[in-house]
Automatic annotation (TrEMBL):
Protein localization: Cell membrane; Membrane
The protein's assembly and partners: Forms a complex with TatA.
Molecular functions per Gene Ontology: proton motive force dependent protein transmembrane transporter activity
PANTHER family hit by this protein: SEC-INDEPENDENT PROTEIN TRANSLOCASE PROTEIN TATC, SEC-INDEPENDENT PROTEIN TRANSLOCASE PROTEIN TATC, CHLOROPLASTIC-RELATED
Species: Kaistella carnis
Protein name per UniProt: Sec-independent protein translocase protein TatC
Function: Part of the twin-arginine translocation (Tat) system that transports large folded proteins containing a characteristic twin-arginine motif in their signal peptide across membranes.
GO biological process, one term: protein transport by the Tat complex
Keyword Iron-sulfur: no
Gene coding for it: tatC
Sorted UniProt keywords: Cell membrane, Membrane, Protein transport, Translocation, Transmembrane, Transmembrane helix, Transport
Entry-linked InterPro entries: TatC (IPR002033)
Gene Ontology cellular component list: TAT protein transport complex
């Protein structure tokens, strides 16, 4: 293919991906009332799954619940069309999450013709690995970090005379920031895989600069979470585990690259 041929091919994949997002967003939009009540505002209620698990173990250890949220989570609308804008944001966000496996499949369809049969076989694993990591990050942000961030914001009070009223846009921003942020950050092992395959990154480099990486992880955790220390630590813990996993992946990929390089040197005539 010529350059413009590749551009035309890429445009087709992008159009199909956009259509998939729109279709999924429409499906989410038609069910937005249920999604808002049960998923979007789910972490604001005491019967949320994370709180039930924590309170179960808390009752076993100390005899009473350790997390009890206020019965009424008051969210106010301050601007015209704010609910409509939030509905659109939730629909688009849900459409992207639901269509993400298909988006990755379209990406694989675009790059697979340029791969050798062995590379194409390995790329199937990588493509599946990408969307699985992204969804794991989404679930981690939704079930692990967001509930504790909301718990901290609801229970922290400097005076009983202050009435807690939460802005709908602020809550939406917090939701997207944590959930989508964790989904993107969880793609870090994929970046490690490709940079190692290209010979840019080595496991020795990752182990040598582990302390620097920990500092960077804490900075990233502080960016994608609110200002409280608890939420930051809850976000940093899975990211630290992800970094250690990335070191193992880097070492495995580095050995494969070295082995392939040696085989190519043997095959190449002197």
């Amino acid at each position: 293919m010529s350059f413009w041929g590749h551009i035309t091919e890429l445009r087709g994949h992008m159009i199909r991906s956009l259509i998939a997002i729109v279709v999924c967003a429409i499906v989410v939009g038609f069910n937005v009332n249920w999604i808002m009540d049960n998923i979007f505002f789910g972490p604001t209620r005491n019967d949320f799954y994370t709180f039930r698990v924590v309170n179960h173990f808390s009752r076993e250890l100390i005899g009473h619940d350790s997390i009890t949220l206020p019965g009424n989570f008051a969210v106010q609308q301050k601007k015209l069309f704010e609910q409509f804008n939030v509905m659109m944001a939730v629909s688009i966000f849900g459409g992207i999450v639901a269509a993400f496996p298909y988006l990755i499949w379209e990406l694989w369809r675009f790059i697979s013709p340029a791969l050798h049969p062995k590379e194409r076989k390995n790329s199937v694993f990588v493509i599946n690995f990408i969307w699985i990591l992204f969804l794991l990050g989404i679930l981690c942000g939704y079930f692990l970090i967001l509930p504790f961030a909301i718990n901290f914001s609801l229970l922290f009070k400097v005076s009983d005379t202050i009435v807690q009223l939460f802005d709908l846009t602020d809550y939406t921003t917090l939701f997207m920031q944590i959930v989508l942020g964790m989904g993107v950050v969880f793609l870090f092992p994929v970046l490690v895989y490709f940079t190692t395959s290209l010979g840019i990154l080595t496991p020795k480099f990752m182990r040598t600069y582990r302390r620097h990486a920990i500092v960077l992880i804490m900075v990233v955790a502080a960016i994608i979470t609110p200002a409280d220390v608890l939420s930051m630590m809850m976000a940093a813990l899975p990211l630290l585990l992800l970094y250690e996993f990335s070191i193992l992946m880097c070492a495995y990929t580095f050995k494969k690259v070295e082995k392939r390089t040696l085989e190519e040197q043997r095959i190449t005539p002197q």
